[in-house]
Amino acid sequence: MNMGREKRHRRLPAENFFGFLRLRLRLIFGFSALFAALLLLHYPLLRLPYYWDEAGYYIPAALDFLRSARLVPSDTLHTGHTPLVVIYLALAWRVFGFSPRVTRVAMTLVAAVTLAAVYALGRRLGSRETACWSVLLLALSPLFFAQSVLVHLDLAAGLFTLLALWALLGGTPWKFALAAVCAMLSKETAVVLLPVGWLFCWWRYRRAAASAVRAWWIAFVAPLAVLAAWAVFYHHATGYWTGNSEYLRYNLYATLTPVRVLLTLLRRLYQTFIGGFNWLLAAGALAGIGWARGNGMGSSQTKAHSRAHESQPNGCHPERREGSLQLSFFLLGGGLTAAYLLMLSLVGGAILPRYLLPVYPPLLLMAVLLIWRLPRPAARSLLALAGGCFVWAWFLNPPYPFPLEDNLAYADFVRLHQQAAQFLEARQANPRILTAWPATDELARPFLGYVRRPLHVVGVEGFGRQDFRGVAAPSFDCLYLYSRRWEPARNWLRSFPLLEDLQERYFDYQPQMPAEELADRYHLRLLASFARRGQWVRIYAPSMKPDTTQEGK
């Protein structure tokens, strides 16, 4: 008996080693398959030139860091954004070379890690099937799918925000501190993690040992200290604590009016819970709550699919509380969503849905967990329907203006501008091209991927009537006109004059000057026209010597 027991003990280390190895190999294989699937889905987008804010700030800033290790770029506007994503891209280019493909694969890697984190957290909170549904729906959601290859800060901020929530649930202060630091260095708006996390820890560990409380205090002070150090460094380099004078006016001083704050909050609620077929998940989550209550299940079903015990911090024994790990996650996710909605209603000139991307992974995971309380056939049918509608939304544009980066409309924009740039570059002459940003940068900066040599560009602020007031016909040889925003034929704003008026008064909405009116005013003839799924580019040239008495009117 003893000899047999000793043999089993002698085999145990080897068994543990091979079990550990098998687990690691499964994890590596699973993540590699996930990353490969994302790359396959995004393959047609990997070579696209850079789009809008990518071209205007993030790519020039990363190139600045690659060439001269400057954390505050000199080749583009100062916006005050923290530099982690810029550093990450510069390192990727240093290893693999500078190209749009390398850039987009690098961002897809961030998306894949985010999905892997959603799966791991979903397994801890529920079953394997709920974790898989959460990953699938997040990957297919139009906003996440579009942003998975674009160089913006919000995707990385969302990854580290999710990891910070996981650390809070697990009761590990140092992991939370590390994740929170990375989240804030990805984008400074992740600072909202701190008050939400502090309130959660106060509720959960208010009777904990003094050493644990001290560890959590350090965990919350460390990210704040890093963000403060960045602000001091940025102020030393630019004279501003964040951004620049125009940036502050647009994103702060011009936003703090009660009516605008209320309208922005309404728009943010729409983007979060209704737009892009999100209403399917919101309705399903409410139905799941109602079904559980109506059938008297309460939290018992939730506990059956979750680990009710909670990890405790080192040396800490928090009081036992009612509720499951899911309840803690719902409190954290709900609090973070509310904090983001409030913050983004108070600040931010552009009401872009991507700014809410840090709360998308926890929100979607919460929705799936709640929908799973429905009878299994109904839950699976609803989740499958949502997934199908998400894929449809990749190509479905709403009947009102929206940011093209919310779905694959941005790819249509980029491909149109590629065609137009190639047409202009092929012309023998080097005409002065009148256009508005971002086309000005696309034509003048070859590293953005549209042209091989810089063209001669004359810039205007936009294509509204006031933007052409000081423009005379002799100042340009060619007009590059394009749809700067989504303007469908049946625009809901035109059907409801009050909505259009509110957009113009509080959100700088301005219809473009009709192309026919511009052609008549400057005596232009159409050289080329390109169109793609409701977007267009038109290139004009003078057809005759203009009447100077009409110029500039």
Any descriptors?
single chain; 553 residues; mainly alpha; five-stranded mixed beta sheet; 22 helices; 5 strands; 60% helix; globular; disordered N terminus; disordered C terminus
Q: How would you characterize this protein structure?
A:
By secondary structure, this protein is mostly helical. It folds into two domains: 42-396, no CATH class; 405-550, no CATH class. The chain has helices at residues 2-41, 53-68, 84-96, 100-125, 128-140, 142-147, 154-170, 173-186, 193-205, 210-238, 245-253, 258-273, 278-294, 300-304, 325-346, 360-371, 376-393, 409-426, 439-444, 492-495, 497-506, 515-522; strands at 433-436, 457-460, 478-482, 524-532, 535-542. It has a five-stranded mixed sheet. The longest helix has 40 residues, at 2-41. The termini are far apart. 38% of the residues are buried. Residues 3-9, 298-323 and 546-553 have low confidence and may be disordered.
Question: What is the secondary structure topology, with strand pairs?
Answer:
Elements: H1 2-41, H2 53-68, H3 84-96, H4 100-125, H5 128-140, H6 142-147, H7 154-170, H8 173-186, H9 193-205, H10 210-238, H11 245-253, H12 258-273, H13 278-294, H14 300-304, H15 325-346, H16 360-371, H17 376-393, H18 409-426, E1 433-436, H19 439-444, E2 457-460, E3 478-482, H20 492-495, H21 497-506, H22 515-522, E4 524-532, E5 535-542
Parallel strand pairs: 1-2, 1-3
Antiparallel strand pairs: 3-5, 4-5
